[in-house]
Specification:
- The chain folds into three domains: about 5-90, Orthogonal Bundle (Arc Repressor Mutant, subunit A); about 95-165 and about 285-310, Periplasmic binding protein-like II (D-Maltodextrin-Binding Protein, domain 2, 3-Layer(aba) Sandwich); about 165-275, Periplasmic binding protein-like II (D-Maltodextrin-Binding Protein, domain 2, 3-Layer(aba) Sandwich), CATH 3.40.190.
- Helix content is about 40%, strand content about 20%.
- The protein has ten helices and nine strands.
- Helix 5 packs across helix 10 (about 290-310).
Length: about 300
């Protein structure tokens, strides 16, 4: 096999192309100028081609040199990526991790999570994708996501497993002038579907809210014309006097409700009965070798929700 360029020589070449100065390129590579110059001359001899035009006043890359530089960049990037993959194999929390989160959880959990994860796992690069439950489950199965924060109860494929992060009870939210406005807890039996506003189909919060009201998942709460596409929109509809809704505790604690305009009522027994709220869980594939490390992420989320509920 013919002799091949070394990674060191390719780094020298890229550094020179970036700096167009032997001294600065040598500093960037933490070597002496003579070492860098010698390495580049060896590379040119190996390839039997001139890559650099050298004069007393300036340095230029030859047209062929520019082509070799672009290929060298890709090679070095691939080598770096390979090293990252190997590193993640030893410590899954020292590298890239893609986390999916549903829209009714993301805005209220992620701000605190991002800050805490940087402190707990400084080498972790957390990439976030906001998705509805069905898409998040599909992307977990296909490997697009490494983890997902979802709301339960939901049906999961046998290939996935999950751990509970915390319980998120519902509150009844209505306008201050609504007939259901009060400072007292509301009985579950007093919540009917006649004036209940919900998210549109596809949001698990819709089914969970219907379950909390003992309504069938297919039952209509108000006209289909009054279904919201997001939780903030739903709250705006309540503020406009169109009805009342059920809002997760984490959203209330995060300041999503303007208490000057809206009334927030606890649902009697919601702290004990999990069918009066939702369970938040962290999900991953059973075959993923990083499950032990994922449990550390779950513990971080558990602490975060516990602190916010304290």
């Amino acid at each position: 096999m013919a002799a091949q360029p070394t990674l060191r020589q390719l780094r020298f070449l890229v550094a020179l192309a970036d700096n167009l100065h032997f001294g600065r390129a040598a500093d960037a590579c933490f070597v002496t100028q003579s070492t860098l110059s010698s390495g580049l001359m060896d590379l040119e001899d190996l390839l039997d081609a001139q890559l650099v035009e050298r004069t007393k006043r300036k340095v230029m890359m030859t047209p062929l040199g520019l082509q070799v530089v672009e290929r060298a960049r890709r090679i070095l990037q691939d080598v770096e990526a390979l090293a990252e993959v190997a590193s993640e194999g030893h410590d899954p929390l020292d590298g890239k991790l893609t986390l999916g989160v549903i829209p009714t959880i993301g805005p209220y959990l992620l701000p605190g999570l991002l800050g805490r994860s940087k402190k707990a796992f400084p080498s972790l690069r957390l990439y976030l994708r906001e998705e509805q439950t069905t898409d998040a489950i599909d992307h977990l199965v296909k490997g697009v996501l490494d983890l997902a924060v979802l709301a339960f109860p939901i049906d999961l494929p046998d290939t996935l497993e999950w751990v509970e992060i915390g319980y998120d009870p519902f509150h009844l939210v209505c306008a201050r002038n609504h007939p259901m406005a009060s400072d007292d807890p509301v009985a579950r039996s007093a919540i009917s579907g006649d004036d209940l506003l919900l998210l549109e189909d596809g949001h698990c919060l819709r089914d969970h809210a219907l379950g909390a009201c003992s309504l069938a998942a297919g039952q209509k709460a108000q006209s289909t014309n009054f279904q919201a596409t997001s939780l903030p929109t739903l709250i705006q509809m309540v503020d406009a006097g169109l009805g009342f809704t059920l809002v997760p505790d984490m959203a209330v604690r995060a300041g999503a409700i303007d208490r000057r305009r809206l009334c927030v009522r606890e649902i009697a027994g919601s702290e004990k009965a999990k069918n009066l709220g939702r369970t938040v869980g962290l999900v991953w594939r059973k075959t993923d070798h990083r499950a032990t490390s994922f449990a550390k992420v779950a513990e971080l989320m558990q602490d975060l929700l516990s602190a916010s509920n304290g």
